[in-house]
Amino acid sequence: MKTRHIILTALIFAFPNLLLAENKGATNPVHKYWTCAISSYHSFVDRKYQETQCSANTEYSEPPCREFVVEYEGTEGIRPGVPFEQTIPSFPDQKSTMAAQPATTRIEINKKKDQYFYIQTVEQTGISATNKWVYNGKCNYNEAPAKEKIYMDFGLKTAR
């Protein structure tokens, strides 16, 4: 009886340590991403130049002055100092007389001091002209457990 009690007590004290030792090498998968917000943009569409400063840039703001999520990892992930370029097969332009044309978009996130700056250039070449849109903003780098759902609502929140 005394032997069982000693073994049981030893197991109770050893079991948590065994669990900790087992989990020390395991890592929880992490979702890495940026939250970015456009602060200004300019465009050259149908030979007309337009420049705008955003007065607000939350998730609920009017496009393009909007907060959004950009992936950090994966085939379409954006890392600081590494430009991402993609061709959009049919880029419709609501304000231009050009029909839907292919466009090239280039996204860069660069670090200056302690801040990350976002620049996206969309260029659409047509028969008679080249249309160009340039969006500027700031980004914040985020990590969240991969199993958690990410909500954007007046700032970033995570929830299960």
Secondary structure blueprint with pairings:
Layout lengths: L1 H23 L5 E16 L2 E6 L13 E5 L12 E8 L9 E12 L2 E11 L4 E16 L3 E4 L3 E4 L1
Antiparallel strand pairs: 1-2, 1-3, 1-7, 4-5, 5-6, 6-7, 8-9
Explain what you see.
- It is a single chain.
- The protein has one domain (30-159).
- Helices cover 14% and strands 51% of the residues.
- It has one helix and nine strands; from the N terminus they run H-E-E-E-E-E-E-E-E-E.
- The strands form two sheets. Strands 1, 2, 3, 4, 5, 6 and 7 form a seven-stranded antiparallel sheet that branches.
- The relative contact order is 0.21.
- The model is unreliable at 1-25 and 154-160 (pLDDT under 50).
State the gist of this model:
The chain is 14% helix and 51% strand. With 160 residues, it is mainly beta. The chain has one domain.
What fraction, in percent, of the residue positions are helical? 10-25%
**Class by SSE composition:** mainly beta
Strand content: over 45%
Note the main sheet.
7 strands, antiparallel
H/E series: HEEEEEEEEE
Which term fits the overall shape? Answer: globular
Number of helices: 1
Please indicate the count of domains. Answer: 1
Poorly predicted residue ranges: 1-25, 154-160
**Total number of β-strand segments?**
9
First-residue to last-residue Cα separation: 46 Å
Our Rg estimate from Cα atoms comes to: 25 Å
Mean pLDDT: 75
